[in-house]
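Record format v2
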Amino acid sequence: MTNKTTSEYEVLSPWSEADTKPLRGIAPRLTDLAGKKIGLLCNPKRAAQPILTVAERLLKERFPTSEISWFRSQSFSVSALEPDRKTEFEDWIKGVDAVVAAVGD
Amino acid sequence: METRNKPTVTLVNKGFFNDAGSASSGKGMPALRVVPLELPYETNVMEDIEPAVNAVMDDIIAGLTKPLTEEEASPKQKEAEKPQRIIFRGSLEEVNRFFYQRGWADGLPIIPPTEEAVAEMLTGTDLPPDHLLGKLISRSGKATVEKIAINAVMAGALPTYMPVLIAGVRLLLESEPGFMGFCTFGFSTGSWAPFWIINGPVRNEIYVNNSSGALSPGNIANAAIGRAMGLIIKNIGGVRKGVEDMGVMGNPLKYTMVISENEEESPWEPLQVEYGYQKEDSTVTVSYPNGYLQHWPYNANDEGILCAVLDNIPRAMRCTTIMTPAHARILARAGWSKESIKTFISEYARGSTSHFGNGGEGAAPDGLTKGKAPVPGAEQTPRIADPSFIRIIVAGGPGAFIAHVVGGGATPGKKQTQKLELPANWDKLVARYKNVVPTYARY
C-alpha cells in the first residue's frame, strides 16, 4: 500500500450548469364544472383509458350537465403527440374548458 | 394544455409522483396539478381502478376548480444554477465519498477529476473546453466539452475516447422527441440501457474489444466509454434512478455496454456502411436494449444457426443480433446477407399470440388474467415484425454462441449513428496511449 490515499486532490464538479427556465404559472381554474366541456386525454398505456373511463362516469354522476370528450394519443409521451394528429389535437383542445389527463404510469 | 389556457389535472400512479414533479419543473411549469393514484402499476383490472379513482375524485375536481395560489399563478423565478468549478478538496477516499453522497457517482470508485487529469482528457479533442454541444434532458444541463471530460476522468477513460464520448453526447442531444430515442428510453420503466457500437478505424486505435468476451469486463475502452456515458447522462442530463430514470428492475447494462464490430473478419458490409457512411469513417451507433441473451446453434451450418435463432430470439420491438465471425462466414458461404437474415427472422421467428395478448399495450390477455393456460394452437405472431428494426453485427471470439441484444436495434428514420470527429494530433495521441493494453501472463 502506498501513501497515495493521503494525497490531497482538488477536484472539478461533474454537475452541469443549467439555465433557469422562465417559469410559467398554470391556467386559471374554473369556478364550477357544471355545464362545462371536460376533455379526457390518455396515452396508450394499459391503465390510462380504464382510469379515465371511471373518471368519466363519476364526473357525469356529479355534473350531469357537463360534456365529456376524449383524445386518445398513440404516443406514450403525451407531450410528443403524433405529428400527423397535431391539427386534430388543437381542434379538440380548443373545444374543451378543462382537461383530465392520465398517462398510465 | 395549461399553455393553451386549459386548466388540467394529471393522474399518475403514486410511485411516479416525484417523477411527474421533475418533469413539470423541467418543462418550466412546476405548479402543474398532479393527483397520485394508489393502484397496481399498469393495470386494467377494474376492481382495483374503480375504488382508486373514486378515492381521488374530490382531488380531481379541486384540481380543476380550486383557485390558484400566488405561487401557482406566478411561480417565483429561480436563480441560474452555477455550480462551483472547484467543488472539493480531499483525499482519494474523501473525494469518492463526497461524490457518492452528492449522487454524482455510480457506486464504483471514481478517479478524482483534478485540473491536471481533466486537462489531459481535453487533449482528446480540438474543441475548446467551454464549447457547448447542447443542453441535455431532463434538466437541460449544459453539455460542455469540459463537463464531458470531467465525467470521462471519473469513469477512468483515456483521452483517445473523447471523440466517441462527444459523438455519443451528440446522439443523445439529437434524439427526437417521441417514442424511439433517449428522451423515452433514458427514463422509461423498462430500464433500457444505451448500447454503443463503434465502427471504423478508431475501433482498433483505441482497442474496443470485438473478440473473446467482447462484452465482459477487462478492456478500458469497452468499460470506460459506457461508464462515462452513464455518468454524463446522470451529471449533465440530471437523470437519476428512481427520480427521473424510472426503470423498475434496473439494468446492469447501464454500467456499460460497448462493443465494436469485427469488420476485418466479417463477410458482410459493416454497420456504418449499411447506414450510409464510408468504411473509412469511424462512427458510434446507439440503441437502448433492456436485456441480453445468448444461445447455441443447433449445428455448424446455416440451417443449424438460423433455426436456433428462430427458436431463441425473443419478442421485442427491435433487436441487435451478434454473430461470431465463424458463424457469419458459414452463413455468407450459404448465400445469406445481413438483409436476407433480417427478413428471414421477421418472417419465421414467431410465437403464440395467446402469450402476447391480442393487441399489445392496452389489451388484456384474457386467458391469462382468468388463470387459464394459453390457448393451444393459437395464431402465431411474428416476434419482430419489421426486418428494418433488426441489426446484425459481427463480433465475439472463438466458439459457437449467438447473442441477441433484446430491445436494442435499428430505429429507421431516427438519429442512430454519429460520425466521429478526430483531433488534428490524433495519430500522436493514439501513439501516446498505445501501450495501455492488458498483457496476461501465461501460467
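Chain A touches chain B through 63 residues (CB under 8 Å).
The first helix of chain A runs from residue 48 to 62.
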